[in-house]
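Hi R.,

As promised, here are both runs. First protein below:
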Amino acid sequence: MANTILQTIRRVNRPTLILFNSLAAIDAVYAKLTDAINPQQRLILAQGNSGSKEKLIKRFMDEDNAVLLGAASFWEGIDLPQEKLQLLIIARLPFDSPEQLETKAQYTRMKAAGKNPFYNLSLPKATLRLRQGVGRLIRTREDYGVVLVLDSRLATKHYGQTMVKSLPDSLPTMSSGFPKLLKDMTNFFKKTPNQPPRVVRVCYNYCQ
């Protein structure tokens, strides 16, 4: 995952938000990125490493091409309008960990009620969170950019298609290997004029 993200931000020099499901994953990827990228060339910010949420967002918006790594509350409730965010990377589909005590308790109650906890609880919650995550990039009709999902389940699992269908119909989607997606993303931004089209491309792939 870290190598895929590193290749992407080296090729796509745009303000980038990367959404994770855990702080541990953020720490691992942040270490990889800061080791590989000169901070004078590109600012890398991470939840839990670079200050409070408010400070992170302010520093991110003050730069032209910063990279911000966040989890939890970064999936919703932050406003990065228009050119302030152009590339959104979703590291993993936002399912709650089944090992969390609260999730285990909810699963137990649903099973006792004769319900499937995955399809009646986990999938709807993850689908809503995915929509909220994509909403960080799409706030107004003038917003544009690319959403890159590094989780092959969106393309290979039946429930992945259910999640894709929950996204706005106006968003073109594609599934491919990472090299082709990287080339397509590069071309997308090269062709984007000063007054960009009101469109977002959502890509998902096997993380390589």
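And here is the second one, sequence first, then its structure tokens:
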Amino acid sequence: MTINEILIALSKQNFLRPNINEIPKLSNDLMSFFLPSHLHPLLGQFTLDLYSNIPSWPAERVNFIGYIVLGLSILALLKSRRKPDIKFWFVTTFFFTIISLGPILHFNGAVAFTDSNLKIPLPYQILYNTIPFLKNCRTVGRFFVIATLGYSVLAGYGFSELLKYKPDRKKAYLYNSRFSAGF
């Protein structure tokens, strides 16, 4: 951030800050992490109706990274959780995933989950209240971009774990990659 943006964030005339009521609409819905996007070329028609319940902007509905990436990330965590680099990527990924959900948990457009209208607050609310320039972050859901990097690294570690169980396939893969690199 530039010095000018920080000064604006600290001033009483902060025009960059979205209205507090807009922030949930600019946050990700938890369902969007597990359901293919309405833009998916094969499954988009099936999920279009499900996404119609979510009042967020269309950009905050495109968070599905795939079941294979999620599975490989979980495998990396289960098999290599003692390694410091895996811990770093897991903590970073988890943090930015949770932050991208905004100040209150949403699931399928709902923010209240029981008969007594229980709302589940999330850590972004604390950060919003304590870090002045974070109030200028117009679209909270875009923190998921950083989490996507973490998921891709964890999926790589998970794939590496899979290769340990089939040494013959690993040799064949290395042979094929050397062979194709020569042409």
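A quick note on the second one: Residues 144-165 form the longest helix (22 residues). Let me know what you think.

Best,
J.
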